Structures are given as structure tokens and as C-alpha cells.
Amino acid sequence: MKKRFWFVACIALVAGMGSGFIAATAGEVARGDFGRLDHVFLIVMENETDRNILGNANVPFINAYSKVANRAANYFGVGHPSLPNYLEIVGGSNFGVDGDRWPEWIEGGCVDHAVGSAWCKVAVPPIASPGTDAAVLATGTQARDCNGQIRSLPQPVAAPNNCALHDYPAAPFEALSIADQLVASGRSWKAYEESLPLVQPGVAGVNYSDGAFSNLSPASVFETEKVVIEQLYAVKHNPFAYFKSVQLGKNPRLSLQQVKDFDGLDGLWADLRAGTVPNLSFIVPNQCHDMHGRVAGSTAICDGHTDAQKALLLGQSDAAVAKIINGIKASRSWARGRNAIVLVWDENDYANAANRVVMLVETNYADNGRVDEAGYDHFSLLRTLEAGFHLPCLNHACDATSKVMNEMFGAGGEPAPGHKGRSSRRG
Questions:
Q1: What residues have CB less than 8 Å from 329, skipping those under 6 apart?
Q2: Could you tell me if residue 409 is inside a domain?
Q3: Which of 289, 359, 391, 427 has the greatest number of C-beta atoms within 10 Å?
Q4: How far is Cα 205 from Cα 427, in angstroms, rounded to an integer?
Q5: pTM given for the model
Q6: Which residues contact 61 (CB under 8 A, 6 or more apart)?
Q7: How many other CB atoms sit within 10 Å of the CB of residue 415?
Q8: d(CA 329, CA 323)
Q9: Alpha helix (H) ranges present in 9-150?
Q10: Residue 24: inside a domain, yes or no?
């Protein structure tokens, strides 16, 4: 990895009901050839290699969409399992997190009223200060090679790129995400997480939820004769919740107030209907709608163990993606400004195949339908978003191997028919 040159930018943030101060260490401002971005709708799916999706009759919408959107033919996750990949998408680093662990919440610690649960024993402290991240090898046979998890049947096999696109030695990181950057630049973000609990205390302290009950519910709800909680929402798919700045929430615009369900007065559907989406919409379907499946307490339709169950899981996830993308394109926000929809998977299914996943981009300002053969990964995606929002690169997004995805985001393409390009900086 080439040496990085950092500079320190101290930014005072004052917004809404509170204020916060960030000492931000960042790299050079990312540059792209595709122009600015006003709104990005980033949809993250789960645990499928590209060959499991493309050409699969159980996912008709996504396959049709892959032919009209721009497709990155060589896009890779960065190791395993989910949480490090989500952190890498929004922060350019795994921040030393080596698995799907829950956060240690600043207010209230880690709580789980489920009988016999041991997950709180391995909770991770909030990401708050600079440190050194965990190394990831491109090709490995041991769990640590992939930053925490690799399944090998019947024995470890070093399939090319089964961990990552490149080797990533352990490197210093700054404890920031793109949410910090957006707020500091006067822009906005939200994480739309399907099946958050509808009851108080809302998001803080919630590690899993079925949309009503969560790990914070009274112990009595966990009794077998009462209810078994389907863990539809999983905090490991909500990377912003792991940052101290968001947990503390001194600035409401950089807080858990920006984490919303799909439903509700300020959820995804309401914001699309009102045309009030933020500059970055981080959209995560629940584990029955993101192809993850095998959810604790789930029904057969969300299981995925048998071929028939897997077909059902993929089919309902495909329908969920169709609903989201069609909703975005029908909204006023899509028609206003220079906007992009990004559909990406976090990683493959650990099957000793290359960790290559589907990554699609549609813009409203340039022609679509391209196939880009260049090698990209989550760090490239972050650098590209930072280029579109004119932000400094973060952590591994500053690496020489983290290329801006110019072709995927419309550089050199023809303008979209009828596009006027009106900017909408604040959403």
C-alpha cells in the first residue's frame, strides 16, 4: 500500500438543536470525471456471489435491471463477515472489528434479555479515536485472512480473491464515516433500516428487532409460549450505529435521529413521497428481504436452508428491491438534481468462490446500460461517493488501488433525455 499523506481539518458544526465539533483527519479531496452528486440511494444486499444472482430465474427484476443499469463486472467485497464490509463501505476501514459483533452503547451498555444470550460479552466499544485496522488478504485459507470468518468445505481452499480484490495490510485509520463528512459539509444523510422497533426506546441500544420487539424488550416476551423474536433488523447492517459521534448525538444531524425505519412519518416511504430525502440514503432491507435469510426465530419463507426455501427467499428479496427502486424513481427527489441509485451486495456466501458480487448503478443524468470490466471494491465505492459530494477520501478509500468509478457513474456518457440538472444540495 502506498504511503498516505494526511492533513487535519477542524470543522465546527452547528445545526438544529445542538452542535458538535469534529477534528477530522482526511486525505485529499476525491476527484471524479462524472460531476457532482445531489442524491445517492445506496441499497445494500446480503451474501450472494454474482453468479448466484445473474441469470437466476428467481430474481427477475434484478436481472432485468442489470441490463438497463450500469454493471461493474468485477466488483468485490472486502473479506467476511457482514459488519466489516458495511464499515468499509461507509468509512473505508474495518476499524479493527473482526466479526459480526454488537456495539457497546454509550448510554446503557449492551443489553439482551434473551435467556442464555452471550452476544453482549463480545460487544465492541464505539469507534471514537484513531487506531490500526485489521489486515485482509486477497486470497486466504484461515479465518483471520478474511478479517474474521471464512467457511471452507470440506477443507480450506485458496480460491483466487476469496477474501478481497487486493491485499490490505493493517493500516492506521481515522475514526470517521461519510456521515461525519456530509454533515461537516452542510449535507444530510439517513440510514433507512427496515424493521426497526416501532416502540421506544427507538434505535439506541437495539441490536435486533422484528419491528415490534427487540433485545431491549422485557424478558417475559422471550418466553416460548409468548413470542419468538424474528431478528429481522440486525445492528451489524447499520454501520453508523458503531460510531461514537452518532451514538452521542451532540449534533442531531449526526445522531441516531437519522436512523429510520422504512415506515413511519419520517421513514423511507414518507420521505420519498414528500421529496425530502437526504443527500445520502443508506437503504438496508430486513434480513428476509436482503437475501440473508436464516434469521433466528424465522419462518420457512425466511430460512433458506433448502433449495425451495432459498428460491422463496431470493424471490421475495427481488420483489423488495423492485419496490424500493420503483419507489425512488417515482419520487420527486429522483427528478430533481443529479442523482444515482446504487445496488450492491456486501459479500459472497463464503463458498470458496471469488468474493465477487453484483454492483449496479443507475443515474438520472447520463445514459445507462454500460458494463465496466475494471476491478473495484467497497473502498472504490466510498471514494466515488466522496468524489461526487466533493469530500476528502477516508482511510483505504485513499489507497492508489481505490479507483473512482467514473464510467459506472456516467462519465463521458450522453445526457439523460429531458434531464435539466437542477441541484438540490440539502436534499
A1: 341
A2: no
A3: 359
A4: 28
A5: 0.92
A6: 318, 319, 321, 322, 325
A7: 12
A8: 10
A9: 50-53, 60-68, 82-91
A10: yes
